[in-house]
Each structure stands twice: as structure tokens, then as C-alpha cells.
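User: My collaborator sent over this chain with a note saying "see what the structure looks like." That's all I know about it. Can you take a look?
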Amino acid sequence: MAKHKSKFLQGKRIDPAPITNKTTVADLIDEAFMAYNAARLREACQLFTKKMLEPEVTVGMSITGALTLAGLGISALIPLIKAGFVDWIISTGANLYHDTHFGIGLSMHLGNAHTSDVVLREEEVVRIYDIFFDYSVLLDTDAFFRKIIEAPEFQKPMSTAEFHYLCGRYVHERERKLKIKDKSLLAVAYEYGVPIYTSSPGDSSIGMNVAAKALQGNKLAFDPSLDVNETAAIVLAAKRGTTKATGKSAKGKKAKGGLSAVFILGGGSPKNFLLQTEPQIQEVLGIDERGHDYFLQVTDARPDTGGLSGATPGEAVSWGKVDPDRLPDAVVCYVDSTVALPLITAYALTRHEPRAPKRLYDRREEFMSLLRAEYQKSKRR
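Assistant: Without extra context I'll predict from the sequence alone. Here is the result:
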């Protein structure tokens, strides 16, 4: 009599194809990343490519850590935007500040992390781990931002998305004059209508320069309430099916429902700002909603030390951040973002056709109108 086969032995048999000089990155991930954190990275790639990139899904990304400084804006984030794979972003201000170095023609260099920082200071070389650049890079970038925010269009309160869109336009023009292309995330986001928010706008050299200009009477001010409401409006519009790239929903036909995905690189304030959109909709505004549908996080933090608090998929369900019915579509990949992001990008570009850009920046007021209309019906007011 044949032995009964346990239901726990239904998984794919571990029998990978040998790696050869013809093995592609995507094939390597599918065939050789069988177990442990490699398997989580494979699951992350497949979740992103097979589910999160479907037309009805709106993908929000949060970015922490010095990723753009390491060239990942150029190598990974920009290709994802150009392929229509990222629809809106929350980033640290530092990532956008360092991104601007590339867009205005300044250079970063590989270095040795063990070099004496006292010697580097004497040489006027700034170090971020094993990335070196001249101190003048900071001064030149500061001068660039101080100059552009003197323009009339900056003399008012605004959301950080509007601020970054305007900055992206100037960086895009600088790239054109320098005859360089696709070096700045800000410039490409401007070109493709991808809104970029910063949850802590004062916590970066950009914010420091805005504060300096305020001492001279500059009227630019960031409105955090606009940021909170605009990001919640994007997610609500995604869930109501009005963010699709095929056109606006407000033309007489009732839109079918859509899905919201979060792609979290690292942690920090951008992570929470991305996830808090659902509690803002449900808990604060009292609008009927259940949480984000797809959850993909790349992190090296741990929940038991508080570094990942509130942001494992299970904990996020308890806050209303993630739909409990969608927990199977959640992956936490415990890998350095500088390792995972290029691999996920290469995999997605290989396995999925480009999507039409949703150009969510252009439709912010439409989404805010939807948020206001649903809030008007709420008993929470």
C-alpha cells in the first residue's frame, strides 16, 4: 500500500537547474533562490511582478536609507518609474537632496570605508560609508535649491508633492542644458507625473535651505495636512478604481474597484507615512475601507527591538493598514535594500511588460474631491 503523502509536501521539489554562463538574473531568482532569505526575495519578486503590477493596482513606494547617493535612483528607481511600475512615492528628504547631485552634474565616487575621517575632513571629502564626494557638492546643491525657491511659484504654502514637482522641473531643465538624461529621480518623476512626498520635510538639507530662505522673507511653507490628505486621497482613489491610466472615472460611468499596493524600502517615517493612509481613511475620516491589498517590504530591522514596530504585515492588519483577507499577499524580505532593489527591478523588467503611467500628480484635486465627498457622508465628522 502506498504511503499517504502529507499535505505539507505539496511544495515545489528542490531540484534547481545548474547555474551556467547563460543564466539570466530572472532565471537565477526563479530557479536558485530556493530557501531562507533568498526564497523571500524570490517571493518578493514574484509578488511584485505577478500581482502588484496588474493594471488595476496602484503602487506606492517608500524610500529610506542613502539609496540615491549609491546610484540606485539611476539604476533602479528611474527604470521602475519609466516602466510605469511605481505610481507614487514617499521619500526621505535626504534621498531627494542627494539625488539632485546627479541631476545638476555633480559627481559621487567609490571609496574605502576604513579611510580616516580626520584625513578626509582635511581633504574636504565627505564620506557616507564607502561613498566619497567633495564638500563643494553640498555647497553647490544648497545654492541650487536656494536659487530656485526664490521663484514666484514657490511663494506660498504647498504640499511636498507640489514642491518636488516644481523642483523636478528645474532639475529636468538643468539636465537638458548639461545634455545628460535620466540621472535624477526628481526630474523623471516630474516628467512622468509621479507625485513624491516627504513625511519630514525639515529633516534634510533641502528643508534646512528652505528654513534659511524663510529668514530672508521667503514665503515657501510645507503644509503637512495637505500631504496627509493627498496621500490618503490617492489610496482611496486606488481602492475605488479611479486611478487607472486609461482615463478619468468621472465621465458618467461607475468605476470598478481597484487595489492598492505598498512597496517599502527600509523603514523610518516614510514607511509609516505610506501605511498610515489607511488608518487616516478608516479611523480618522470614518470612510468604509479595509486596508492595502499588497504588502512588500525590504528591511534589515526586527520587530522585537521596536525597529519594525507596526509594520510587519500582521501588526499592520491590527491597525487597519492591511486588509486581513490579503495577508497571503504579503512578503517581508529581510535583505539590504541595496541588494534587493536592483534584483527586484531586473526581475520585473524581464518578466513584465511596461504599464502606462498613471500620472497621479496631475489628478490630485480630482482625488481630493473624492476624499471630501466620502468624508461628507461619514458619521465621524
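A starting point for your reply to your collaborator: Residues 235 and 260 are 6 Å apart (CA to CA).
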